[in-house]
Write a structure and sequence with these properties.
By secondary structure, the protein is an alpha/beta fold. The chain has helices at about 10-20, 35-45, 55-60, 70-80, 90-100, 115-120, 145-150, 170-185, 195-210, 215-225, 225-230, 235-250, 275-285, 290-300, 310-315, 335-340; strands at about 25-30, 80-85, 110, 125-130, 130-135, 140, 165, 255, 275.
Length: about 350
Protein backbone atom coordinates (compact mmCIF):
# COMPACT_ATOMS: atom_id res chain seq x y z
CA UNK A 1 0.00 0.00 0.00
CA UNK A 2 1.31 3.45 -0.97
CA UNK A 3 0.35 6.34 1.28
CA UNK A 4 0.66 9.91 0.04
CA UNK A 5 1.90 12.53 2.51
CA UNK A 6 1.23 16.23 1.92
CA UNK A 7 4.48 18.07 1.13
CA UNK A 8 4.35 21.23 3.26
CA UNK A 9 8.11 21.80 3.50
CA UNK A 10 11.19 20.69 1.58
CA UNK A 11 12.04 18.14 4.29
CA UNK A 12 10.23 14.76 4.15
CA UNK A 13 10.93 14.11 7.85
CA UNK A 14 9.24 17.37 8.86
CA UNK A 15 6.30 16.57 6.55
CA UNK A 16 5.93 13.10 8.12
CA UNK A 17 6.02 14.62 11.60
CA UNK A 18 3.33 17.18 10.70
CA UNK A 19 1.21 14.44 9.11
CA UNK A 20 1.51 12.43 12.34
CA UNK A 21 0.16 15.41 14.28
CA UNK A 22 -2.66 15.79 11.77
CA UNK A 23 -3.66 12.19 12.51
CA UNK A 24 -3.59 12.92 16.25
CA UNK A 25 -0.76 10.44 16.77
CA UNK A 26 2.80 10.41 18.17
CA UNK A 27 6.12 9.66 16.50
CA UNK A 28 9.77 9.04 17.27
CA UNK A 29 12.38 10.36 14.84
CA UNK A 30 15.77 8.64 14.91
CA UNK A 31 18.88 10.52 13.75
CA UNK A 32 22.61 9.84 14.03
CA UNK A 33 23.92 12.59 16.33
CA UNK A 34 22.86 14.62 19.37
CA UNK A 35 23.17 17.84 17.39
CA UNK A 36 20.94 16.44 14.64
CA UNK A 37 18.32 15.45 17.24
CA UNK A 38 18.24 19.01 18.60
CA UNK A 39 18.17 20.63 15.15
CA UNK A 40 15.44 18.30 13.90
CA UNK A 41 13.24 19.06 16.92
CA UNK A 42 13.78 22.81 16.52
CA UNK A 43 12.87 22.76 12.82
CA UNK A 44 9.67 20.79 13.45
CA UNK A 45 8.66 22.99 16.40
CA UNK A 46 8.82 26.13 14.21
CA UNK A 47 6.10 24.61 12.00
CA UNK A 48 3.67 24.15 14.93
CA UNK A 49 1.61 27.16 15.99
CA UNK A 50 -1.45 25.73 17.75
CA UNK A 51 0.26 24.04 20.73
CA UNK A 52 1.30 25.85 23.92
CA UNK A 53 2.72 23.79 26.80
CA UNK A 54 4.09 26.69 28.84
CA UNK A 55 3.87 24.93 32.20
CA UNK A 56 5.88 21.95 30.99
CA UNK A 57 8.35 24.21 29.14
CA UNK A 58 8.94 26.16 32.38
CA UNK A 59 9.61 22.90 34.26
CA UNK A 60 12.19 21.87 31.67
CA UNK A 61 14.10 25.15 31.76
CA UNK A 62 14.09 25.39 35.57
CA UNK A 63 15.77 22.00 36.12
CA UNK A 64 19.15 23.77 36.41
CA UNK A 65 19.63 26.91 38.55
CA UNK A 66 21.35 28.54 35.55
CA UNK A 67 19.79 27.18 32.34
CA UNK A 68 22.20 26.37 29.51
CA UNK A 69 21.59 27.12 25.83
CA UNK A 70 20.57 23.44 25.47
CA UNK A 71 17.98 23.88 28.24
CA UNK A 72 16.54 26.89 26.45
CA UNK A 73 16.40 25.02 23.13
CA UNK A 74 14.61 22.09 24.73
CA UNK A 75 12.16 24.40 26.50
CA UNK A 76 11.28 26.19 23.23
CA UNK A 77 10.64 22.84 21.52
CA UNK A 78 8.58 21.46 24.42
CA UNK A 79 6.41 24.58 24.29
CA UNK A 80 5.22 23.28 20.88
CA UNK A 81 4.83 19.64 21.94
CA UNK A 82 8.18 18.51 20.50
CA UNK A 83 11.30 17.33 22.34
CA UNK A 84 14.77 15.98 21.72
CA UNK A 85 16.30 13.19 23.78
CA UNK A 86 19.94 12.13 24.04
CA UNK A 87 22.67 11.27 26.55
CA UNK A 88 23.58 14.94 27.06
CA UNK A 89 20.29 15.85 28.75
CA UNK A 90 19.97 16.27 32.51
CA UNK A 91 18.33 13.14 34.06
CA UNK A 92 15.35 15.18 35.26
CA UNK A 93 14.82 16.59 31.76
CA UNK A 94 14.92 13.07 30.31
CA UNK A 95 12.37 12.01 32.92
CA UNK A 96 10.04 14.91 32.04
CA UNK A 97 10.30 14.18 28.31
CA UNK A 98 9.67 10.43 28.70
CA UNK A 99 6.87 10.84 31.23
CA UNK A 100 4.97 13.40 29.14
CA UNK A 101 5.43 11.42 25.93
CA UNK A 102 3.89 8.37 27.62
CA UNK A 103 0.98 10.54 28.79
CA UNK A 104 0.49 11.83 25.23
CA UNK A 105 1.31 15.43 26.14
CA UNK A 106 4.41 15.53 23.95
CA UNK A 107 3.77 14.29 20.42
CA UNK A 108 7.22 14.09 18.83
CA UNK A 109 10.65 13.11 20.13
CA UNK A 110 13.79 13.43 18.00
CA UNK A 111 16.50 11.14 19.33
CA UNK A 112 19.57 9.07 18.50
CA UNK A 113 19.12 5.39 17.56
CA UNK A 114 20.84 4.30 20.79
CA UNK A 115 17.72 5.42 22.71
CA UNK A 116 15.70 2.69 21.01
CA UNK A 117 17.42 -0.01 23.07
CA UNK A 118 17.44 1.83 26.38
CA UNK A 119 14.00 3.44 26.74
CA UNK A 120 10.58 1.85 26.29
CA UNK A 121 8.65 4.55 24.43
CA UNK A 122 6.36 3.07 21.76
CA UNK A 123 4.71 5.41 19.27
CA UNK A 124 2.41 5.17 16.25
CA UNK A 125 5.26 6.07 13.90
CA UNK A 126 8.95 5.33 14.05
CA UNK A 127 10.75 7.51 11.49
CA UNK A 128 14.37 6.47 10.92
CA UNK A 129 16.01 9.38 9.14
CA UNK A 130 19.65 8.31 9.44
CA UNK A 131 20.73 4.75 8.75
CA UNK A 132 24.38 5.74 8.70
CA UNK A 133 26.62 7.34 11.30
CA UNK A 134 30.27 8.26 11.58
CA UNK A 135 32.52 5.35 12.59
CA UNK A 136 36.16 4.26 12.34
CA UNK A 137 35.89 4.10 8.55
CA UNK A 138 33.86 7.22 7.94
CA UNK A 139 30.09 7.04 7.45
CA UNK A 140 28.92 3.46 8.09
CA UNK A 141 25.52 1.75 8.21
CA UNK A 142 24.13 1.20 11.71
CA UNK A 143 23.81 -2.47 12.80
CA UNK A 144 20.70 -4.26 11.54
CA UNK A 145 19.82 -5.06 15.15
CA UNK A 146 19.81 -1.34 15.96
CA UNK A 147 17.48 -0.71 13.02
CA UNK A 148 15.13 -3.42 14.33
CA UNK A 149 15.16 -1.80 17.78
CA UNK A 150 14.15 1.56 16.30
CA UNK A 151 11.59 0.10 13.89
CA UNK A 152 10.15 -2.00 16.71
CA UNK A 153 9.05 1.14 18.55
CA UNK A 154 6.26 1.57 15.98
CA UNK A 155 2.83 0.56 17.27
CA UNK A 156 1.42 0.72 20.79
CA UNK A 157 0.06 -2.65 21.96
CA UNK A 158 -3.49 -2.38 23.27
CA UNK A 159 -3.91 1.21 22.02
CA UNK A 160 -3.61 0.91 18.22
CA UNK A 161 -4.19 -1.82 15.69
CA UNK A 162 -0.93 -1.16 13.87
CA UNK A 163 2.10 1.09 13.73
CA UNK A 164 4.23 2.52 10.94
CA UNK A 165 8.00 2.24 10.69
CA UNK A 166 9.44 4.51 7.99
CA UNK A 167 13.05 4.55 6.78
CA UNK A 168 14.01 7.62 4.76
CA UNK A 169 15.58 6.95 1.34
CA UNK A 170 17.12 9.86 -0.57
CA UNK A 171 17.09 8.10 -3.93
CA UNK A 172 15.85 4.97 -5.70
CA UNK A 173 19.30 3.44 -5.18
CA UNK A 174 19.12 4.17 -1.44
CA UNK A 175 15.69 2.57 -1.32
CA UNK A 176 16.94 -0.71 -2.84
CA UNK A 177 19.96 -0.75 -0.54
CA UNK A 178 17.79 -0.19 2.56
CA UNK A 179 15.40 -2.98 1.55
CA UNK A 180 18.20 -5.47 0.92
CA UNK A 181 20.23 -4.60 3.99
CA UNK A 182 17.67 -3.79 6.67
CA UNK A 183 14.32 -5.24 5.60
CA UNK A 184 15.62 -8.52 4.18
CA UNK A 185 18.93 -8.67 6.08
CA UNK A 186 19.57 -10.94 9.07
CA UNK A 187 20.37 -9.28 12.42
CA UNK A 188 23.87 -9.64 13.82
CA UNK A 189 24.55 -12.30 16.44
CA UNK A 190 24.18 -11.19 20.04
CA UNK A 191 27.11 -11.75 22.39
CA UNK A 192 27.04 -11.46 26.16
CA UNK A 193 28.91 -8.42 27.46
CA UNK A 194 29.93 -10.40 30.53
CA UNK A 195 32.66 -11.89 28.34
CA UNK A 196 34.33 -8.45 28.42
CA UNK A 197 36.56 -8.39 31.50
CA UNK A 198 35.82 -4.81 32.71
CA UNK A 199 32.09 -5.65 32.69
CA UNK A 200 32.66 -8.95 34.52
CA UNK A 201 34.80 -7.25 37.18
CA UNK A 202 32.14 -4.60 37.76
CA UNK A 203 29.22 -7.05 37.96
CA UNK A 204 31.10 -9.50 40.17
CA UNK A 205 31.87 -6.78 42.70
CA UNK A 206 28.29 -5.46 42.61
CA UNK A 207 26.83 -8.95 43.19
CA UNK A 208 28.87 -9.29 46.37
CA UNK A 209 28.30 -5.67 47.45
CA UNK A 210 24.50 -6.00 47.17
CA UNK A 211 24.44 -9.38 48.92
CA UNK A 212 22.97 -11.21 45.92
CA UNK A 213 25.91 -13.62 46.09
CA UNK A 214 27.51 -14.31 49.48
CA UNK A 215 29.79 -17.18 48.54
CA UNK A 216 31.69 -18.61 45.61
CA UNK A 217 29.00 -21.25 45.25
CA UNK A 218 26.25 -18.64 44.95
CA UNK A 219 28.33 -16.62 42.46
CA UNK A 220 28.91 -19.62 40.21
CA UNK A 221 25.24 -20.60 40.48
CA UNK A 222 24.22 -17.08 39.45
CA UNK A 223 26.54 -16.98 36.44
CA UNK A 224 25.57 -20.51 35.37
CA UNK A 225 22.08 -19.14 34.54
CA UNK A 226 23.30 -16.23 32.44
CA UNK A 227 23.34 -15.84 28.66
CA UNK A 228 27.13 -15.78 28.94
CA UNK A 229 27.17 -19.32 30.36
CA UNK A 230 24.86 -20.51 27.59
CA UNK A 231 27.17 -19.08 24.94
CA UNK A 232 30.38 -20.24 26.64
CA UNK A 233 29.08 -23.84 26.98
CA UNK A 234 31.86 -24.77 29.42
CA UNK A 235 31.05 -24.08 33.06
CA UNK A 236 34.43 -25.31 34.30
CA UNK A 237 36.20 -22.82 32.04
CA UNK A 238 33.78 -20.11 33.14
CA UNK A 239 34.45 -20.94 36.79
CA UNK A 240 38.19 -20.48 36.33
CA UNK A 241 37.63 -16.99 34.83
CA UNK A 242 35.30 -16.01 37.70
CA UNK A 243 37.70 -17.29 40.37
CA UNK A 244 40.60 -15.46 38.71
CA UNK A 245 38.66 -12.17 38.85
CA UNK A 246 37.69 -12.86 42.46
CA UNK A 247 41.36 -13.30 43.28
CA UNK A 248 42.15 -9.90 41.76
CA UNK A 249 39.34 -8.21 43.69
CA UNK A 250 40.77 -9.60 46.93
CA UNK A 251 44.30 -8.62 45.98
CA UNK A 252 43.12 -5.04 45.31
CA UNK A 253 41.37 -4.88 48.70
CA UNK A 254 37.79 -4.77 47.42
CA UNK A 255 36.60 -8.18 48.67
CA UNK A 256 37.34 -10.20 51.81
CA UNK A 257 36.82 -13.88 52.54
CA UNK A 258 37.77 -15.34 49.14
CA UNK A 259 40.51 -17.94 49.15
CA UNK A 260 42.95 -17.72 46.25
CA UNK A 261 43.03 -20.55 43.73
CA UNK A 262 40.58 -23.38 43.19
CA UNK A 263 38.65 -25.00 46.01
CA UNK A 264 36.84 -28.29 46.07
CA UNK A 265 33.12 -28.46 45.43
CA UNK A 266 32.53 -29.41 49.05
CA UNK A 267 34.30 -26.31 50.34
CA UNK A 268 32.68 -23.79 47.99
CA UNK A 269 29.81 -22.98 50.35
CA UNK A 270 32.19 -22.29 53.26
CA UNK A 271 34.07 -19.52 51.44
CA UNK A 272 31.97 -16.50 52.45
CA UNK A 273 32.38 -13.26 50.53
CA UNK A 274 31.89 -9.64 51.57
CA UNK A 275 33.07 -6.30 50.28
CA UNK A 276 35.43 -4.02 52.17
CA UNK A 277 34.29 -0.41 52.74
CA UNK A 278 36.46 0.58 49.77
CA UNK A 279 34.99 -2.18 47.60
CA UNK A 280 31.44 -1.16 48.54
CA UNK A 281 32.15 2.45 47.50
CA UNK A 282 33.67 1.37 44.18
CA UNK A 283 30.53 -0.70 43.49
CA UNK A 284 28.28 2.26 44.36
CA UNK A 285 30.17 4.48 41.90
CA UNK A 286 29.91 1.85 39.10
CA UNK A 287 33.66 2.08 38.57
CA UNK A 288 35.61 -0.65 36.83
CA UNK A 289 37.57 -2.16 39.78
CA UNK A 290 40.77 -2.03 37.70
CA UNK A 291 40.32 1.72 37.25
CA UNK A 292 39.58 2.14 40.97
CA UNK A 293 42.73 0.16 41.84
CA UNK A 294 44.78 2.32 39.46
CA UNK A 295 43.46 5.52 41.07
CA UNK A 296 44.00 4.25 44.62
CA UNK A 297 47.59 3.24 43.81
CA UNK A 298 48.18 6.65 42.27
CA UNK A 299 46.89 8.37 45.41
CA UNK A 300 49.12 6.21 47.62
CA UNK A 301 52.20 7.05 45.57
CA UNK A 302 51.27 10.73 45.61
CA UNK A 303 52.18 11.02 49.28
CA UNK A 304 55.89 10.97 48.47
CA UNK A 305 55.85 13.07 45.31
CA UNK A 306 55.72 16.72 44.29
CA UNK A 307 52.56 16.92 42.22
CA UNK A 308 50.86 19.48 40.04
CA UNK A 309 47.34 19.63 38.58
CA UNK A 310 48.79 17.99 35.48
CA UNK A 311 49.78 14.94 37.59
CA UNK A 312 46.15 14.30 38.50
CA UNK A 313 45.04 14.86 34.93
CA UNK A 314 47.60 12.31 33.74
CA UNK A 315 46.40 9.79 36.35
CA UNK A 316 42.80 10.10 35.14
CA UNK A 317 43.72 10.04 31.44
CA UNK A 318 45.67 6.79 31.86
CA UNK A 319 42.51 4.83 32.78
CA UNK A 320 40.79 2.47 30.33
CA UNK A 321 37.65 4.62 30.26
CA UNK A 322 39.56 7.45 28.56
CA UNK A 323 40.54 5.33 25.55
CA UNK A 324 40.84 5.81 22.65
CA UNK A 325 42.98 8.84 23.50
CA UNK A 326 42.66 11.93 21.33
CA UNK A 327 45.51 12.56 18.92
CA UNK A 328 47.30 15.89 18.77
CA UNK A 329 47.17 17.43 15.31
CA UNK A 330 50.45 18.56 13.79
CA UNK A 331 49.46 22.23 13.82
CA UNK A 332 48.49 21.97 17.52
CA UNK A 333 51.67 20.25 18.70
CA UNK A 334 53.72 23.42 19.38
CA UNK A 335 50.86 24.98 21.35
CA UNK A 336 50.57 21.95 23.62
CA UNK A 337 54.34 21.83 24.11
CA UNK A 338 54.23 25.44 25.32
CA UNK A 339 51.40 24.67 27.73
CA UNK A 340 53.31 21.73 29.19
Amino acid sequence: MIKRIQAITNDPVVDLALDTLKLGKQCLIFVNTKRSAEHCAEVISTQIKDTNLKQLADKVISVLPQPTSQCRRLSRCVLRGVAFHHAGLHPRQKELVEENFRKGVLKIICCTTTMAAGVDLPAFRSIIRDLKRYGHRGMEFIPILEYHQAAGRAGRPGKEEYGESIAIARSEGDKEEIIEMFIKGKPERIYSKLAVEPVLRTYLLSLVATGIAKSQEELLAFFSKTFWAKQYEDMSGLSSIILKVLGLLKEWGFIEGHENGFVSAGDLGNSRLRTTPLGKRVAELYLDPLTAHHLVEGLRQARAANLTEFSWLQLICSTLEMRPLLRVRTREFDNYQEML
